[in-house]
Amino acid sequence: MKCFCLIxxxxxxxxxQAHSDSSYIKAIENASSNEEKEDGFIEWxxxxxxxxxxxxxxxxxxxxxxxxxxxxxxxxxxxxxxLNNSRLGGFYTIPQIADYNVNASDRLLIGGILKCxxxxxxxxxxxxxxxxxxxxxxDPTRKSLYYILSTCVENISETKKTILFKKALRHAKRSxxxxxxxxxxxxxxxxxAENEDFEEAIxxxxxxxxxxxxxxxxxxxxxxxxxxxxxxxxxxxxxxxxYNLNKALDLSKDLKIDFIKGEIYNELGIVxxxxxxxxxSIKFFQQSLLSFYKVNNHKGLANTHKNIGRVFxxxxxxxxxxxxYKLSYEFFNEFENNxxxxxLEFFFAELYYNRKKLSLxxxxxxxxxxxxxxxGLLIPINEAQFLWAKIKNKKGEYExxxxxxxxxxEFNDSLHRLETSKRIAELSEMFKSEQKxxxxxxxxKQLEEELIQKMLIKSxxxxxxxxxxxxxxxxVISILFFAAIILLIRNKNKQEQLKKKQREIELQQAxxxxxxxxxxxxxxxxxxxxxxxxxxxxxxxxxxxxxxxxMRLILENNTKEFISLEKExxxxxxxxxxxxxxxxxxxSFTINNEFIxxxxxxLIPPMLVQxxxxxxxxxxxxxxxxxxxxxxxxxxxxxxxxxxxQDNGVGRSASAAKQKVSNxxxxxxxxxxxxxxxxxxxxxYKNNGFLKxxxxxxxxxxxxxxIIATPFIRKI
Length: 716
What we know:
- The chain has 716 residues and is an alpha+beta fold.
- It has helices at 2-29, 34-48, 53-61, 72-89, 104-117, 124-131, 140-150, 158-172, 179-194, 198-214, 218-234, 238-252, 258-274, 278-295, 298-314, 318-332, 341-354, 358-374, 378-394, 398-414, 420-430, 434-533, 537-557, 565-582, 610-618, 652-658, 665-685; strands at residues 563-564, 587-592, 602-604, 628-637, 640-647, 690-697, 702-711, 713-714.
- Among the domains are: 16-101; 103-177, no CATH class; 258-337, Serine Threonine Protein Phosphatase 5, Tetratricopeptide repeat, CATH 1.25.40.10; 500-714, Histidine kinase-like ATPase, C-terminal domain (Heat Shock Protein 90, 2-Layer Sandwich), CATH 3.30.565.10.
- The chain is built from 27 helices and eight strands.
- Strands 2-4-5-7-6 form a five-stranded mixed beta sheet. A three-stranded antiparallel beta sheet has the order 1-3-8.
């Protein structure tokens, strides 16, 4: 029965896919011009690339069967989509440029991108040739590709690389190929993670989550969540890592992309091993292997077997550990750019050291050094020196062991490592012998003599400095004092004006709240009275609970300069529930905040959004239209935190006509106050926050969209 159900589900999935394909094919065939055929084909590929990368690639390879002639922009779209499919699907295959009609300038651009994709450096000569054609790269897509390939030029500085990444992002966001922006955000985040700037790495992945969700890039969204999980795992924040990975797993269920599922299971296996849930860890690793075998992804298989081996090694099951290490080794040797092979060689060295096979351990350790050195990875080399010193000590090569210890200690000092003294102490205990003690004493004596010399020189220098020190201090203090007086005089009037303006705005804010609260309380009391008259105890109790909690939140946070985003969400939610009950569920609302990682650490001005939600309900006449809706969204955009409030009400024009006979002073005052608050924040935090109000449906002049942007502030 289970087999029958499985076959039925597979057949149903195939039928749905076939139906989707046939509808696109029919639209392409019925198109009246080649341009319309191309547009239909591009739309088909764009949708398919986020669901089934393997099938999408087969359609791209056979594009001539659907569109006999394709434009240069269309060709570039297909090639870049093919590369993104290769990344998402774990195929690591590149398109054959000869199969496409590509002009000379685009051929150079794509050639550079292909080198980046394969982790190859672009030579100065190659880059000069590409740059000489850069005047052809005027559109956002080509500009973003040009800047991203520029990050792969040989010997480029880290500062320059960061600037290029940001330029690439700026242009990619305006590209019609939406997956480019998401892909570059992911690459920039990985770059920050490699440099151990984890806060920036997570921030760019969160931007990728918001962007992918907004533009329905489901596969890209899953990849961003996986990378966030990896970063938290690396920081040993296993709970946060597991949360993001499980979200990715839920989203990936509808995708036919086995490589992505393999990545999720592999990372969940790592998390569970760190949580010491070994059975669950092995189960996830096994699921990961099945997914990677389906797409024949050797890199994924190599890493998963390596991780399984590590779990068995930590449990002292050395035979199983060695077996999985060897399987990992076989897969690593089947592809180039196998950076992870260095770590595997190190794991072999640890294993054979524990088995007292010292020569074999040293052999693998030297191979690890070679791989790390070739890839410019100095920190792993330094960490492995500790094991090398232990091997040399066991082999009786004490002088060599001590020399390695000194190199290890010197490198750690340069990186300000906190564990240096602990490991030196461990090695000192390990290397106790007459030769070792003699060497240590000689070193200490030499260091003492050098220290005495330094102290004598320092003492002489101090005597010389003290003669003029008093006069120098007096001069410096005098200069600073007079400079401070000048600055105080110049800024005094300006500060007084700013303080006066701020006091006026604070008084306006207090006045608005004093107007808002009685007005809202009066309506709320009317609703409660209505429930009581109707003897509706359930609704009256529910209304009172929400009302009392909302009033408490407003009173507690009313006078604060900033409150947490979490508190603001609670105020908005309770306010909307009360309004919905008041209008007897004649409208609905949505608050989209699930992709903000930690709302408790983000600070915003209080009561910023509520006046505009009130306008949406009251002036948008949501209770009088069919399917009235209020939607509140939020996102982080570089250094701004952005709220968007939109409704499908009667629109601003109709509302203005209706309010000619009523008092609109409260609404106007809310807008003016918000603009003044944002202006003050912009001055204080040197930012470009704004308030923007526009029609949601421009053609029909219905609905309203309010965008509020304030500085992005985190708790310290």
